[in-house]
Amino acid sequence: MAHVLLRTKGITIMEENYIRKKTRRKMDHLTYHCKDGVEWFSFPILDQFPFIVNGFSTRQGGVSTGGAGTMNLSLAREVAMNMHLTEEQCRANFLENHKRLSQAVGYPYESLVFSNQTHTDNIRILQDIDRGNGITKPNAFNDVDGLMTDITGQALMTFYADCVPLLIVDPVHRAIACVHSGWRGTIKGIGSKAVRMMHEVYGSAPDQLVAAIGPSICMDCFEVSKNVADAFMDKYDPSLHKELVRYGRLTETGEQKYHVDLQRACMENFLLAGMKKQNISLPDLCTSCNVDVLFSHRASHGSRGNEGAVLMLR
Description:
The chain is of the alpha+beta class and about 325 residues long. It contains nine helices and 17 strands. It has one domain (about 5-220, about 260-314): CNF1/YfiH-like putative cysteine hydrolases (4-Layer Sandwich). The chain has helices at about 45, 75-80, 85-105, 185-190, 190-200, 225-235, 240-245, 260-270, 295-300, and strands at about 5-10, 10-15, 30-35, 40, 50-55, 110-115, 125, 145-150, 155-160, 165-170, 175-180, 210-215, 225, 245-250, 255-260, 280, 305-314. The strands form four sheets. It has a six-stranded mixed sheet. Strands 7-8-11-10-12-16 form a six-stranded mixed sheet. Helix 5 packs parallel to helix 8. The termini are far apart.
């Protein structure tokens, strides 16, 4: 593929390792950064707000090894991928990775807030006391796939290895939400729910919200069975079926496979909640197509760490 030169913070870098599908246009929905060996993306649609810190990590620049190498942000994945290490060694790697990423992107890692994601549509409204949940103190939030706050200096992080990151900003009321949307969460409409909750809690007008949909598995790589394809066709208007679902291969046993466009479905959830299309960024970067530089559960057959999407008010 052609090498793309980008100017990032005064340094010319080669962005040759990241593959984009369906288009050869310049990567204008994501901005690549590299600092002290740590590689990450930010979202131009969110970079326009000086009071916002945002980022999406890659697997480059950390200290983890094996399938979790190197910038793994999940302690559970660190333990799973490094059975030869003690729990203390795994935690040391986990903390060092978070320190490196936070220093590169520009947020205090002690202020991070995590949750245990289980593909629900549960979203937690954070309080100041929640600062550090999951990193400086035990993770107390179970079955939570979205976090929202209007507190400055509180960094929200959700984790990924193919599922869809949703980062939502209310520039008027200074509120944010960071949401994990896998296929189950997408069917449940977790993106729509986040918009409704921001309206109820912070007074956010849906048509004033701005959102970035982050790197995740593309339609070509997301192969599903008929029950999943049917669930998407049941949820969305028939006019969208051809855009969201298409026929895939026929297996040796005669099973028909399908492909689903998760990113586009997440955009539709935002639109159904009243957001404006021009306020939603839909990047063309697939985790599964970039398994050497991004974590992908499918492409690695489960041998992987986790990337993180981070969003903070400052």
